Structures are given as structure tokens and as C-alpha cells.
Amino acid sequence: MVNPKLHLALVHYPVLDKNDATIASAVTNLDLHDIARAARTYGVSGYHIVTPVADQHELVSSLRSHWVEGHGATYNPKRRQALELVELHENLPAAIVGIERSEGVRPRVVVTSARFADSSLSFSQLRRHLHRGQVILLVLGTGWGLAPECVASADDRLEPIDGPTDYNHLSVRSAAAIMLDRLLAT
Amino acid sequence: MVNPKLHLALVHYPVLDKNDATIASAVTNLDLHDIARAARTYGVSGYHIVTPVADQHELVSSLRSHWVEGHGATYNPKRRQALELVELHENLPAAIVGIERSEGVRPRVVVTSARFADSSLSFSQLRRHLHRGQVILLVLGTGWGLAPECVASADDRLEPIDGPTDYNHLSVRSAAAIMLDRLLAT
Predict the structure, then answer these.
(1) Contact B164 A185 (CB under 8 A)
(2) How close are the terminal C-alpha atoms of chain A, in Å?
(3) How far, in Å, CA of B170 to CA of A88, rounded?
(4) Looking at residues A64-91, what average pLDDT do you find?
(5) In this structure, what is the dihedral angle of CA atoms A67, A68, A72, A78, given to the nearest 10 degrees?
(6) pTM for this prediction
(7) Which of B47, B178, B180 would you mutate first to test chain A, the one with the most A CBs within 10 A?
(8) Which one of A4, A100, A114, B19 is at 20 to 30 Å from B90 when CA atoms are compared?
């Protein structure tokens, strides 16, 4: 058994809107906090925010600094430990290069969607890969999900989270938490 | 096998603040949406918002109406299906009475915390109770968690969510999603 090396990417471009058009979504404060806290709880190696929008980079940097170095770090040290995981990238290939540099190996890129009818990997298979030491980058989309070109370029498509109903509209924050629990809980 | 009857309560009073003082926390828009969407995905029977603050009842009612009957219902019908689960109560005993009225039996009240050292119920035990047909009310606290009197009055204390690290500071939204997955996933 090894320490799993799971990285998480939250993609804001290219993602779909309600009408399946490709857009850049806005970074939200709560996506940063909720997913960083879950990532820290489950021992995730890095939480990668992907957006090409310069203003959004400034926003994320200033939020991160507040909690990691500023007043927030003393007000709530637990948030510091979570927000320290946040890294910023212009696009997904840049995130992959960054992870390859830090881990010494290119990560296997696994994309997620609530809509895959043709997934290539189950949760239990991915859990096995992780616990055998494979470096994984799990990619989540904001908005109405990852754009097709982002899905097509990945190594694997993870099976959707299957609730017991035919309704499947979890927030990306809930989906991230459930995925981490399924892949990394002891 | 029966259809599990799980109700969820999100308590805003009495809960603790950072310094373990008892407070009434504010209802947030995202607690409503994220947890309602997860509840709907996992077939939860009711999502009970508990707060004694009259202003907050007005806020929740108007949000619920927007998505269930107003413009939101046509803009995004999926949100209607989720927000329909929301019910409002002055306090936890009122929520229990309401559930007893609709289900014909008093629910077993199970409280949650990230800090229980003396839990009385594991996830697998609770899952078994649910799938055998016992009506359960799972109670989550906002802020820094449920006040002691709320914990003391419950039938059971659920084991904390155990990540693989010693950090355990999930948002209540993430915790709710993980609990529903552990208890109700197929």
C-alpha cells in the first residue's frame, strides 16, 4: 500500500452552458473553500483551478493569500491548511505539466461527468489504481460540465455517480466530496 | 428490501460558534440548493430547515417559491424538483412532529458531528436500519456544530466521517453529500 497521489482540477474553461455552448464560467468563492476543505480532509495532493481569465487569477490569488498569509491565516488556521492546496493554471495542459514537474511522472487524466453513457473506468478500478501508486488527475467541470474537446483529450472517463433515483443534478461541490470519499476513504 | 425513508434536518439553532457559544446561524442560499439537490438525487423524503428566526423563514419561503412556483420553475425545472423537498420548522421537536404526522411513525433521531468520540451508530448500521424500513431523521448542524442539548436529546450519534488524514473540516454541504452517498447509494 502506498499513499495515493490524487490531484483534482476544477475547470472553468472550456465548459458547457445550459444550451451546450462552450463558455468560461466564473470562479466562485465556495467552490474554492468547499472543495479545498474536502481535498485536505482526504489527503489530495493538489487542487488545481483552471481558468484563462486574468481577472479570475487575481481574484483566486487574493483569496488564497488572505487565508494562507493574511488575516485569515490567524483567524482560521484550518482554512490555511486547505487553501494551501490551491494552484492556478491557464488551461488543463498547463496543469498536467505542473503536476508532471512536481510528481516526476505524467498523471493519468480522468475526466468526470454526470452524463457519461460510455465511461471507461469505475470508482473501484480508479481506487485500485490510486492505492497501487498511480498518479491521477481527476478533472471536474463547472457550469453544465466539461466541453467535448476536454473529454476527448483525457485518458479515461469515470463512471457517473449513481444515486438510487433517476435525478442526477449534484452540485460540483457535492460531486467532488462524494468522489473523494469513494476513492480515498479508509 | 424497502424504499429507505430518510429525512434530513439542517439546524441553525441551537448551534455552536467558533468559541463554543450557542448561537442562531444564518440560512445560506447554497446550503438550501446544494443539499436539496443531493437530497433529491439520493431519494431523501424531506429536507427540513430548522430556525426560530422569522426573517429567515421569510427568506427561505421566498427562495423556495421562486424555484417551485415562480420564474425559476420554468427556467430550471430540475431545481424545482430539488427545492420541493424543503420544509421549514421553528425548532427540531416541531420537525420531528411534522415527520411523525406524514410518515405515521416517530422517526429515530440521529445527530451528526465531526467531533463525536462516543458515537453510538456506524454508517453501515444506519444503512441497514434504513434499508429495513426504519424512518430516520438525520440531523446536521451549521456553524461549528450542534449544541450539546441538541445532541443529548437524540436517539443516536452517528460516527464521524473518517478521512485518511487527521484534518476533518468538511463543509456541512460536503458532509451531507458524503453521508447520503454512504447511506443510500445503490
Answers:
(1) yes
(2) 12
(3) 22
(4) 91
(5) 90
(6) 0.96
(7) B178
(8) B19
Q: Give yes or no for a contact between A110 and A138, defined as CB atoms under 8 angstroms apart.
A: yes
What confidence tier does A74 reach under pLDDT thresholds 50, 70, 90? confident
Statement: residue B1 has pLDDT above 80: no
Contacts of A124 in chain B (CB under 8 A): none
Cα A29-A31-A35 angle, rounded to 5 deg: 130
**Strands B15-16, B22-23: parallel, antiparallel or unpaired by DSSP?**
antiparallel
Segment A60-80 mean pLDDT: 89
Task: Decide if pLDDT at B42 tops 80.
Answer: yes
CA distances to A71, A140, B135 from A11, in Å? 28, 6, 39
Which of A43, A163, A171 is nearest residue B34 as measured by Cβ atoms?
Answer: A171
With 0-12 / 13-18 / 19 or more C-beta atoms within 10 angstroms meaning exposed / middle / buried, residue A18 is exposed
Average pLDDT, chain B: 95
Residues from chain A that touch B41, judged by Cβ atoms under 8 A, are 161, 163, 165, 167-170
Alpha-carbon gap: B83 to the closest alpha carbon of chain A (Å)? 12
Q: Which three cell numbers stand for residue A30?
A: 465556495
